[in-house]
Design brief:
The structure holds 2 protein chains of 2 kinds.
Chain A (H helix, E strand, L loop, with lengths): L11 H6 L3 H6 L6 H5 L3 E4 L2 E3 L5 E5 L8 H13 L6 E5 L2 H6 L14 H28 L6 E4 L2 E4 L5 E3 H10 L26 H5 L15 E7 L7 E5 L9 E6 L3 E6 L2 H9 L2 E4 L9 H13 L4 E6 L2 H7 L4 E7 L11 E7 L2 E6 L4 H12 L6 E5 L13 H12 L5 E4 L2 H6 L7 E9 L5 E10 L2 H4 L26 E8 L17 H16 L3 H8 L4 H16 L11 E9 L2 E11 L4 E12 L6 H21 L4 E2 L2 E2 L18 E5 L17 H13 L14 E3 L2
Parallel strand pairs in A: 3-4, 8-18, 16-17, 20-21, 24-27, 24-28
Antiparallel strand pairs in A: 1-2, 2-3, 5-6, 6-7, 8-11, 9-12, 10-11, 13-21, 14-19, 15-16, 15-18, 19-20, 22-23, 23-24, 25-26
Helix pairs in contact in A: 4-6, 6-7, 12-13, 16-20
Chain B lengths: L1 E4 L2 E4 L8 H8 L18 E4 L2 E4 L5 H4 L3 E3 L12 H8 L9 H14 L5 H7 L9 H17 L1
Parallel strand pairs in B: 1-5
Antiparallel strand pairs in B: 1-2, 3-4, 3-5
Helix pairs in contact in B: 3-6
Amino acid sequence: MKSIQNTPINRRGFLQVSASATAALSLGFSLPAHTQAKQPQEVNAWIDIHSDESIVIRYARTEMGQGSRTSAPMLIAEELEVDWKKVRVEDVQAHESLKRKRAYGDMASVGSRTIRNSQDYLRKAGASARMMLVQAAAQRWGVAESECQAVLGKVVHTASKKSLTYGQLAADAAKLTPPKDVALKDPSTWTIAGKSIPRVDIHDIVTGKIRFGVDTQLPGMLHAAIAQSPVFGSKAVSIDSSKVDNRRGIVKVLNMGEFVVVVADNWWRAKEALRDVSIEWESSKYAQVNSASLMKLYREGLNQTDAAVARQDGNALATLAQANKVMESEYYTPYLAHATLEPMVCTAWLQDDQLQIWVSTQNPESSLTAAASTADVPQENVKVFAMQMGGGLGRKSPQDFTRQAVAIAKALPGKPIKLMWSREEDTQHDLYRPASLVKVRASLKPDGKPEALHIRVSAPSIFSQLLRMPLQNGVDPQAVASLNDHPYDIANCLVDFAQRSAHVPVGFWRTVGHSQNPFVRECFLDELAHAAGIDPLAYRLSLLPNNEKANRDRGILQAVAKAADWDKPLPAGVFRGIAETDGYGSYTACVCEVSVNAKSEVRIQRIVIGIDPGYAVNPDNIKAQLQGSVVHGLSAIFWGEMTVKDGRIEQSNFHDYRLMRMNEMPKVQTVIAASGGFWGGVGEPAQAPLAPALGNALFAATGKRIRSLPLKNHGLSLVKA
Amino acid sequence: MKLNINGQTHQLDVEPEMPLLWALRDELDIKGPKYGCGIAQCGACTVLLNGEPVRSCAYPVSSAAGQQVVSIEGLAQKGKLHAVQQAWIDQQVPQCGYCQGGQILAAVALLKKKPKPTDEDIDAAMTNICRCGTYARMRTAIHAAARQAAQS
């Protein structure tokens, strides 16, 4: 068996309390008995070396499918100079990091930033350990370090060919002072990073052994099903649980104010009983809100005069006022639910003043602080076990479900409580991708290029509503993302933001502002190119100035256009659109080829999608992220829309919040054009150019400009090509 | 009632209408089948019942009594992965992995019926939702597993 397949995911805390020995074994520890007996030697916080020469590399973020449990350790292994086959990856937990004064830095998996924000200290951890091992060998031999070289888990004295293994050197190396100056490898010499390495957790996934948050099992554990007010923000005034109090398996029905829970010995029993608990929710002024009233709210924002300025070059308003002809369009993108396949889940166990939680979280440190404050215990008393997530998509970073689980555990001290939301709760109590209404106006110069551009965004603010952060200069950076930082050479440009807050809770949805604003920017640019009678690729290239960032935009645009044979004619009946974006430190572009028939059935013939992430640490995983971004994006583009009626979300499950399936999957061709010199993310950016590339292709095919999503509202359906 | 799961017989005393999923997960600690929707839409709860894929979240446990139930945990035989599991690894199909147990079982059932499935067969049989979007790799893996089975 390849050792990579055997790589366990060590969740030490889980083992201490797991009721089931087989569950414990399934979580790892397939080491030979002799190595279990000997303590491994920790060289630094990230690296343990075992006497059998196996290496444990720690991973300090979480995993929801983005692949960084594999790619982050690859960077350490690369600098450490070890055989990847001997590496096992072990997750670090937030309480362990807290105990070591946050030795592991930021542990959140958000914003496509695991690699780009931690690559420097991860690589240095590997390089530093390698230098200490070399120093230890040099000291033992009494030779200069410069005469020694680290090669695949050994230090070799070049002249004498003497060698010592890392296992033989680890104890001495650990006693040395870590070097101050650490030189990192030139990425062109990488042998592990830059290669497509299989996921370290894949064997446990395909055998069903891996434990997600929902799979936590503890002795005497109880299950909680939850109901929150259908109209956001209301509390439960009273409940009547008399119908279920004596029902089999029901332990407790609790009115927690902001929510009601049934606690039972089986989640199904809890959920079924909850349906028969009558709950009176306080009446709410928000019960009047519906999708039409929300649209009115956003429309008002389009005409407000004192919007906050997000970008100002030249004088767009004056130029537009004097222009002979102004092009004007309005674009709308709807509220969206995350719909991670694993719903919100957290298990909490409060024993006296000691709290343990097992949670599907994108931000374990945030889980820890939320749990401690809810239980009112010191942070040192909390252990957080961040479980494999069945998708995160941005939803599992806020900690509402963690607070709920801990509050329930506090009401039932001594009992482990697993709170899992039903799909219906998950759909109707999400923190939604905000809706956004945008008005775009432009005038063109005689050569067809934009003379002035004004983009007005009217939308809620995630930063102000969810994070309760004051907006710098009144601008929510996500609400204007990709608009205020567009790379194009337009002398007069104004981007401004009219914040419009509704009672619908909002949050970070995969790709966040870049999931919606590129649809506006790149489709409107297409409108301008069409008005100017210029090829949309040529138009974009002519607008990109000569600077470092714009050159990268140009690079990915050209790479994708080339892969899509943009300069060659298409078969009859096939049409295409192109779009380019940058975000999360990476550069992305997309070409969509479509046919549309008289029944408005859209056949996507091919999608070419490309990214320049600077460095491609694990290329096959980047490819997977691009493929996944297309599926995630197409579900939203064709069907995604949360509508509001009587203050509540109308959709409730996958029958009315439709997600794409196998039979709708188009042909996707990926391009990874890593140009080096910078580090960009890969989990989110590729979704950005998809909607505009498709919108532009649909215009080419039908002559009808799509300015709102989802496409189902335009009568368009997705049919396999 | 008696349930045969992954070759082992379990004695269960539960409500007959309890969905099989919750008998497996919360009564027997068989966690491979996942909850995703509760209304037989997503297929994360898929298990094999006498070789046929069923969505266990909407399948009464009493209807499974006396029949052969296989969950993802029971697919590998004596530590040897099923060809579909191996193909899933070779093609690096999973991302988060939550739906993959159900997807693999659906693919196993398809290949048993149609050892050389066409793309249309795959489209018809593979109806489970994958939110990470691994559809293209699943298709490749199914074809690869079919080729593998044909050669061996």
